[in-house]
Amino acid sequence: DAELVHIQLCHIFPTLMRHLFRVATDLPQLKGLNDFKCHCCVEAKMKHAPKPPRSIRTITMPGEFVSLDVTGPLRIKSVNGNRFGLIFIDHCTNTPFAYAMKSKDEYPKYLKQFLIDFRELFKGLRVCEIRVLRSDNASEFNSAEVKQIYLDHSIKRHLANPEQQFQNGKAEKCIGDVLSLIHISEPTRRS
């Protein structure tokens, strides 16, 4: 049976099995090499469920689409007592804006600061206002104060689905990069 030999040969690729039977004289010829599918091999090659097709909308100006995410609490407090990180990333320029917070309740303060920083950085361009902010549905993004800031600045909010991290992937990747830099720069502790 071809499937049994496939398993005995540590799930060898079927094309390689065909070649092996041509080269090796002591292996019996097996029928059904083209017909079987090993469920273990199929599952092992799966990474995750298929993603929906990407949007064909192109972003041409800074501020058209910005992702954000909060990370923390971090194991070690910073010198100023910060344990949370906040990342905004513009999808057009891939410019990250990082802020350190003592608690998640400080998000409205840093949202206002981000709007000022963004306007300053891109003031020479035609669009210097944020149009869309994408985030998850965390409680710090849903306060009345935050909703009022969105209304005052005409910012549309997009929510990423909780099961699909790739929708907020730029912010997640940026946080991962920042955390890896933090871990590299952490002093090693001696026992």
Please explain how this structure is put together.
Helices cover 34% and strands 14% of the residues. The protein is of the alpha/beta class. β4 (132-135), α5 and β5 form a beta-alpha-beta unit.
Topology:
Layout lengths: L1 H7 L5 H10 L15 H7 L20 E6 L12 E7 L5 E6 L5 H15 L10 E4 L8 H9 L3 E4 L9 H17 L6
Parallel strand pairs: 1-4, 4-5
Antiparallel strand pairs: 1-2, 2-3
Quick overview:
This protein is of the alpha/beta class and 191 residues long. It is 34% helix and 14% strand.
Strand content: 5-15%
Largest sheet: 5 strands, mixed
Rg over C-alpha atoms, rounded to the nearest angstrom:
26 Å
Secondary-structure element pattern, one letter each:
HHHEEEHEHEH
Structural class: alpha/beta
Percentage of residues assigned to helices? 25-40%
- How many strands appear in the DSSP assignment? 5
Low-confidence segments, given as residue ranges, are none
Q: Label the overall shape.
A: elongated
Average pLDDT over all residues = 78
Instruction: State the end-to-end CA separation.
Output: 57 Å
Give the helix tally. Answer: 6
Going across the major beta sheet, what is the strand order? 3-2-1-4-5
